[in-house]
Amino acid sequence: MVRRHELTNAQWDRIAPLLPETGGRWADHRTVVNGVFYRTRTGIPWRDLPERYGNWQTVYERHRHWSADGTWLKILRALQTGADATAPDAGGEWAVNADSTTCRAHQHAAGARHASPADHPEKGAASVWTKTDVRPWDAPGAD
Questions:
Q1: pTM of model > 0.70
Q2: How far apart are CA 96 and CA 112, in angstroms?
Q3: Sign of the dihedral defined by the CA atoms of residues 14, 19, 76, 54, in that order
Q4: CA–CA separation, 84 and 93 (whole Å)
Q5: Which of 10, 15, 47, 67 is deepest in the core (most CB within 10 A)?
Q6: Quick one: which of 29, 42, 37 has its CA closest to 101?
């Protein structure tokens, strides 16, 4: 039985050849990949990863290593190529959706000093806005 956040056998068969060869006594790649997917889908901290995925530090380090060496990118490109080959009517377009409901800025991010936008005057500067008689909807060729 496959759990909710884990790979099916067919999915695993597609990405297993793309993973680096195991050297030494590494933890099982499939368990680690399932742990990474579980953490990514649930948004939990690494330390709260369920024990069935092994040591959270192993899962974290392998994820970090594969991000740095391009393994995840290689898997993504191979899966995209396979999807393009099986769905020729898709037109080659990819829609990406990022859910930002769990993204938060660091507490020190609020109120940071930064340069003013180029089109905004500094405090005490004379107005740089000029009044025009043409509004965007009245401009020639706006129809």
A1: no
A2: 30
A3: positive
A4: 9
A5: 15
A6: 42
